[in-house]
Amino acid sequence: MRLKTFFGLFMTFALLASSVTPVLAAEKPSVSAEGAVLMDAETGTVLFEKEADQKRLIASTTKIMTALVVLECCNDLDQTLKVPAEAVGVEGSSMYLQAEQLVTVRDLLYGLLLKSGNDAAAALAIHCAGSIDAFSAKMNEKAASLGMKNSAFQNPHGLNAEHHFSSARDMAILTRAAHQNEVFTKIVSSKYAQVNGITIKNHNRMLWSYAGADGVKTGYTINAGRCLVSSATREGMRLIAVTLKDHNDWADHAAMLDYGFNNYSLKTLCVEDQVFREVPVIGGDNVKAKAIKTERVLLEKEEEGLLEIQVFLPRYMWQPVIPGQRIGMLTAMLDGKVLAQCPLIAEKLSEG
To answer: Is 167 a known active-site residue?
Structure first.
């Protein structure tokens, strides 16, 4: 009988420890914030939360959304624009822009995210959408597309408004999306920047005080209290921490991030184009089985020794085998449950 696909044979790479010492569950951090979330940026897994879905004022952490919408609608960041009169003299933190001043989109983004300029937020919004209201509509469209269920935006800067709010979970979701933009990550991880010949300093103290910190944004109003979104990357794992209305935010973020890095890790199962072995093809040349994508899973560190990776491939195949055809599967198992899978496909035919 001709067998064209998966038949009985599989290779098992068991990463089972010969003996596993019981580990007590790590104590979760205690934070002062009214709302908090710790999220793994790659998988979106929430590692810690406190009142994560409560709608709250978010102050200038709003500017994460502002920056993301601007980056998606402005193709040329070096484009020069004239500062509109409506953007001048906006209350709160400021770049001190002047009407008709010439400035690039890039410089405004640095002023927005490092100096937290409310005038920069207004100038960018008007440039991208024509008005504050039109830009706010774009912000809400983006929030809906990201699945931010407890958020509404009424302005690009975060000053108190009746229909302007978010939640700790939604802000983590937003930041996870924003970090996928390399320009955003470059800006928010910058301690200093030169804007119009003036050196500006990032308000985010985490960049100086926490190893691996690479963002993101501070915020404060009297009604919102202290708001902070931070991120840090260690050993290839980026974590995002959010606290809303938190009088001890710097210490709380360090404690949350420490908890994540001390107790979780990302395990690489395969990398894109990784070849596992050749499969004989009867009536034709052999093919190589390769991974179609990079696949990683988030594990508690005490689980690492229990992870089992199985590679399912046929002993042989019959012609025709087409390059790119799925011919096998890599599966990661933990306690009998499937954590992740990655299809294996046929590489270009090689000489057998």
So the answer is: no
Annotation says 93 is catalytic: no
The tokens of 188 are what?
A: 């928010």
**Cα 289 to Cα 9: distance, rounded to the nearest angstrom:** 14
Burial 247-281, CB ≥16 within 10 A → b, else e: eebbebbbbbbebbbebbbebebbeeebebeebeb
Confirm whether 116 is a catalytic residue: yes
Residue 27, token pair as written in the block: 């104590």
Q: Tell me the per-residue pLDDT of 61-80, one tens digit each, with 9 for 90 and over.
A: 999 999 999 999 999 999 99
Residue 117 dihedral angles phi and psi, to the nearest 5°: -70, 115
Cβ atoms of 62 and 219 within 8 Å: the answer is yes
Q: What pLDDT digit, counting tens, does each position of 1-51 carry? A: 333 333 334 444 433 332 233 334 578 999 999 999 999 999 999 999 999
**Out of 50, 63, 115, 245, which one is annotated catalytic?**
63
3-state secondary structure of 52: coil
Q: Which of 50, 93, 116, 265 is catalytic?
A: 116
